[in-house]
C-alpha cells in the first residue's frame, strides 16, 4: 500500500527547518551589529557558526549512522531551537555576554549538517513507501531546499524589521520545534539494515574515509574546492551582506532581499 503522507511530512519538516536556518543566518549577525556595532564581532560570530559545520561534516556521518536518521533529524532541530531560544532569553533578561553568544551559536550549528544529512537519507525509504521514483523524490527535495532559502530570506528580513532581531529569534526557535514535531509524529524510522563489515570502530572507519579522499585526486580536488568556496561564501553571508545592509541601507528587509536574490541566482527547478 502506497503511503505518501510520510514523504510529504518530511518535505514539510525540511522546509520549516531550512527556513529556520535562514532566519538564524540573518537574525544573528543583525543582532550582533545592533547590540555591539562591531563588524569584527559579527565576523567572529560567523566563524563560530561556520566552524561546527566543518567539524560535523567530518565526524557527523558516523554519528548519524549510530543515532539513526529520524532521531538525528529531531535532535538537530531541538538543539537549534534550544540554542536560539537561549540567545533570545539571555538577551531579554540582560545577561547575554559575547562569549555566551559564541558558545550558543557554535552549539546550535553543530548538528545542522548531520540533521540535513539525516533527512536526505530518509528520502529513499519514504519514496519507496510512497511509490515515487527516487529521481522524482530527490528532485523534489532539491526544490524544497532551494525554495525554502528563496522564500525564507525575504520573510526573515521582514520579521527582523517588524519584530526586531531578538524577537525574531523566538519565532526562529518555534520553527525548529515545529520541524522536530512533524518528524516525530509523521515520519517513520528507517528500517534497520544489516551492518557492513567494520574495520575496527569509529576511528578506524574515519581513517578509511580520509585515506579514500586522499588517494582519489578528483575527490580530493572537489573537497578542497568546496571548502574554499564555502569559506568565502561564509564571509559574504555572515559579514559583508549584513554590514552593508546595516551601515549603508539600514534595512533588514534589504538584507533579506539580498539573500533572496543570491538564492534565486543558484536556484534551478529543472
Which keywords apply here?
single chain, 270 residues, mainly alpha, Growth Hormone, Chain: A, 85% helix, globular
Task: Write a structural description.
It is a single chain. With 270 residues, this protein is mostly helical. It is built from ten helices and no strands. It has a single domain (5-188, 200-263), classed as Growth Hormone, Chain: A. 85% of the residues lie in helices and 0% in strands. Helix 2 (39-67) crosses helix 5 and helix 3 (69-92) runs antiparallel to helix 7. The longest helix is centred in the C-terminal third of the chain and has 33 residues, at 217-249. Residues 194-199 have low confidence and may be disordered.
Can you give me a brief rundown of this structure?
By secondary structure, the chain is an all-alpha fold. It has helices at residues 5-36, 39-67, 69-92, 98-110, 112-130, 134-163, 165-186, 202-215, 217-249, 252-265. The longest helix is centred in the C-terminal third of the chain and has 33 residues, at 217-249.
